[in-house]
Design a protein that fits this description.
The complex is a heterodimer of chains A (226) and B (446). With 226 residues, chain A is α+β, with helices and mostly antiparallel strands. Chain A has helices at residues 18-26, 34-38, 104-108, 150-162, 175-179, 196-201, and strands spanning 4-9, 47-52, 60-65, 84-86, 92-94, 115-116, 143-144, 185-189, 206-207, 219-222. Chain A has 6 helices and 10 strands. In chain A, the strands form 4 sheets. In chain A, strands 8-1-10-9 form a 4-stranded mixed sheet. Chain B has helices at 10-17, 21-47, 62-73, 77-86, 96-117, 126-129, 136-156, 160-167, 173-181, 189-222, 234-260, 269-300, 303-313, 318-336, 344-371, 386-409, 415-436, 441-445. In chain B, helix 4 packs antiparallel against helix 5 (96-117) and helix 12 runs antiparallel to helix 14 (318-336). The longest helix of chain B is centred in the middle third of the chain and has 34 residues, at 189-222. The chains are: A alpha+beta (226), B mainly alpha (446). Chain A binds chain B through residues 36, 39-42, 49, 51, 65, 74, 77-83, 98-104, 106-108, 110-112, 115-120, 139-143, 209-210, 213, and chain B through 47-50, 53-57, 59-60, 114, 117-120, 123-124, 126-127, 129-132, 134-138, 141, 220, 223-226, 370, 373-375, 377-378, 380-381.
């Protein structure tokens, strides 16, 4: 079984937000009106944090952040109904029809990367036709977050099966990694020693967010250089 | 049982048979608040939790604060009454009932606040259908339902002889109602023996259950890795806080009942003095725990913890934090430490202060940690809305309303226990004290 993971090279990230838009489009992430955004109710499964470089006033740093798909997720055991759990592929999944909306998982996540639907989801009228039919639209009152485009994995698996071949890592890419124009995001099997993602994850610059918590994230960052 | 109460304890029957205008007026006002809150709740379900002040990072607010607060207050009755019964404190007789009722009623409001906080109330039963016992919330479901069952039984058992007294005084539908509830109580010797044994067993059983309830409530927070939640002190700290706010709730209730139903003869200054001393002990324990928690966090100076600490002690939450300190420690301590101010009024002021303070404590546990998550770029700012305060007001109003209705159906002071105290306690206590003393009395008694 592959261990799906992502490496994000912070040296290559230009903060262009292509991943953010690709994700919103792919996953039917609802529009949040400005007055709601001001109340910090934005939903963005992946978003980019701007950081000031400590050594230079003129330099900006960007940190794309998404669900870390921890191997030891703090969010899943606390769910009272098993609506969030680590699935067979090792991804942290959300079952929207089962979620009772208690937001315990959102509070238990040290990365604060889970989102709640405070209101029913909304889109401008003309955008409703372009909703992705592969991804369910979440109702109000449930928690949602990045799934590593799990629906794409399902599709890739089915395709490989009909073509009577093994699933190859190239078959499955999340929308954000696919959209990244600078190639800062590399996705693949962390357990396959020959994959690019596995090799990059052993780079001396590699680190994980809050490694000390022992959550063992499957999103690995490469430290920005000089 | 022969009715020996006719003259002496008539005051205790009075609330059941006579209801004044003021009662109905209060009921009307409280009902209006409850209806308003019910409307607001439907409004919230209709529109979504967006009508609250909650947001990303501060996912929990007033509702969860109220949940912890109400479950805390529930430690009033059952636990205090059980401890007083087991330690055979004779002055307990007129206060156990009014304390036990608080527990049973207030537990419902604890549970209700979790329901108000849910995004999908329609899926409430998923907790039973798909319950996952890895979640501390499921532990809560178990411990709170056990506690509710145990404390209801513990309230009902000592009520049986009183229900029988009422049964013999009324007619019509009320007769049928009390006959059903009295379980054919005749006051015969074997019945009394069995009842006392049952009460004795329940008094022992409810204590570990009560302790487990608030420990598990604290674990909802402590089991996460969030700064200033992930702490081993939380279990005992919450239990102490619960007993603290519980005693304060009893005293507040006692003063009101005493005044409204003219029970000055049953609730004497000595009751307030004794409970005041208990409250004083809890005030000091509360201070000890709080001091211990804040000192260790500050001394360790772990960056994520200290940012929460700073926001509480000097930052945005300082008014809440120092308000808590004033209401939980300075006011009650200065009133309760002297016998001169440990009066009915003195303990009442201290109790109201403690209840306000403990609510502030609960909110300074829930909100500041969520406002300062580990990733420092995210700072949720939480302003509770009218919706949340309306529902909170509704909870308090409905609680008082149900309590008032209880006093109209059942004696709020245990009549048979008062009677028993009058008849037996004096000789029993004398005999007991004699066994403590050295000398030949001991042999004589054997």
């Amino acid at each position: 079984m592959p261990r799906w993971g992502m490496v994000i090279d912070l040296d290559r990230c230009s903060g262009c937000q292509a991943c953010v838009i690709a994700c919103k489009q792919e996953n039917n992430v609802p529009f949040i009106l400005p007055e709601q955004a001001a109340k910090r109710r934005t939903i963005a499964w992946i978003h980019i944090i701007q950081l000031q470089d400590e050594r230079s006033e003129t330099k900006m740093r960007f940190l794309p952040i998404l669900c870390q798909h921890c191997d030891r997720p703090p969010c899943t055991p606390v769910c009272p109904v098993g609506a969030t759990y680590k699935n067979q592929e090792g991804l942290v999944a959300q079952v929207y029809p089962r979620c009772i909306g208690c937001r315990y998982c959102a509070n238990a996540c040290p990365y604060t990367i889970k989102f709640f639907n405070w209101y029913p989801p909304q889109w401008p009228e003309e955008m409703k036709k372009s909703l992705n039919p592969d991804v369910s639209v979440r109702p109000k009152g449930v928690v949602e977050k990045c799934t590593f485009c799990h629906h794409r994995l399902m599709k890739a698996k089915e395709k490989a099966k009909t073509e009577k071949r093994e699933l190859s890592p190239e078959d499955y890419q999340p929308a954000c990694a696919q959209a990244c124009p600078t190639g800062a995001m590399v996705f693949g099997d962390l357990d396959d020693p020959y994959s690019e993602v596995a090799q990059l994850s052993k780079d001396p610059r590699a680190f994980a967010l809050m490694e000390d918590l022992g959550t063992r994230p499957k999103v690995i960052y490469l430290r920005a250089g000089a | 049982m022969p009715d020996k109460t006719v003259n002496k304890d008539e005051a205790l029957f009075k609330p059941i048979f006579f209801t004044g205008k003021k009662f109905y007026l209060t009921v009307a006002i409280l009902s209006a608040i409850v209806i308003w809150a019910a409307f607001i709740w439907i409004w919230q379900i209709w529109h979504g939790l967006g009508v609250t002040g909650l947001n990303r990072s501060v996912f929990w607010g007033v509702y969860i604060t109220n949940f912890v607060f109400f479950i805390g207050v529930s430690h009033a009755g059952t636990l205090i009454s059980a401890i007083l019964r087991l330690s055979r404190a004779e002055w307990r007789r007129s206060i156990t009932r009014m304390a036990e009722v608080i527990t049973v009623l207030v537990l419902f409001f604890g549970v209700a606040n979790v329901i108000f906080d849910m995004g999908r109330v329609d899926r409430l039963l998923n907790v039973i259908k798909h319950g996952h016992f890895t979640s501390p919330l499921l532990w809560d479901v178990c411990s709170i339902s056990t506690y509710l069952t145990a404390s209801t039984i513990y309230l009902f058992l000592p009520l049986i002889p009183d229900i029988a007294l009422l049964r013999d005084r009324v007619s019509g539908w009320r007769k049928r109602f009390y006959t059903f509830l009295s379980l054919n109580w005749q006051g015969t010797e074997p019945q009394v023996k069995r009842l006392e044994k049952a009460i004795g067993i329940m008094a022992v059983v409810v204590i570990p259950i009560a302790v487990s309830v608030h420990t598990v409530v604290s674990w909802v927070f402590a089991m996460t890795v969030q700064p200033m939640w992930h702490s081993a002190i939380f279990g005992p700290y919450f239990v102490v806080g619960a007993i603290f706010s519980g005693i304060a709730a009893i005293i507040t209730g006692m003063v009101i009942i005493r005044k409204v139903y003219h029970l000055e003869d049953y609730l004497k200054p000595v009751h307030f003095n004794n409970l005041g001393i208990l409250l004083l002990v809890m005030t000091l324990l509360w201070f000890y725990f709080t001091f211990g928690e804040y000192l260790t966090t500050w001394y360790g100076h772990e960056p994520r913890e200290i940012s929460v600490w700073q926001s509480k002690v000097f930052g945005r939450f300082a008014p809440l934090f120092w308000g808590m300190f004033l209401f939980c420690f300075i006011i009650p301590f200065s009133l309760l430490c002297r016998k001169k101010t440990r009066t009915v009024t003195g303990t009442l002021i201290a109790s109201i202060s403690v209840n306000i303070g403990m609510w502030l404590e609960r909110i300074t546990i829930v909100v500041p940690s969520l406002s300062n998550p580990r990733l420092p770029y995210l700072r949720g700012i939480y302003h509770p809305t009218v919706v949340e305060f309306s529902i909170m007001a509704g909870c308090f109003a409905l609680f008082i309303l149900l309590y008032m209705i209880f006093t109209k159906f059942f004696p709020i002071v245990s009549i048979w226990e008062i009677q028993e105290g009058r008849e037996k306690a004096l000789s029993e206590t004398t005999a007991r004290i004699k066994t403590y003393l050295p000398g030949p009395q001991l042999e004589e008694l054997k």
